[in-house]
Amino acid sequence: MKPFVFTAALLLAPIAVPTARAAPFADPAAIDAAVAQFTGVPLGSTGGAAQPVDRRLRLRPCANPLSIGWYGSRRDTVLVQCPDVGSWRLFVPLLVTAGPADAPAVLRGEGVTIAVTGPGFSVSQPGEALDGGAVGAWIRVKSTTAGGQPMRARIVRPGLVEVQLSGE
Fold this sequence. Notes:
The protein is 16% helix and 29% strand. By secondary structure, it is α+β, with helices and mostly antiparallel strands.
């Protein structure tokens, strides 16, 4: 009986060997490498991805090569997408330093928040930039409410301008 058990084990052995299959999920490390190759800067360095792709993501593997390009005009985010129908896309933020002082923070025609501040209060409302400028520059803005008149405001950061009222 022992030869029969041994022969049966040999016949069943090839069935127990796992077969090579495609990975069930896209490899986040491969996405990190693709972003580093696209930007030409390693992960965590200025100009490269700010942090690795989240390892908890369970993305469907791509049958086609990844599509990688800039997202937005500021070149501070990379768009990585699987070109397969109905697949996924990721927005990978880059590690950037503050640009030159004259870099525009607000563009003409852009929607902004107008903060009107004074001693002990602050009120904000939506508005539109009538001029563009860098942080700290004074530009003309107007409220988007009906009959909003142009006023001058200082750019605090991208998307936020401030009008300060004195307490006197």
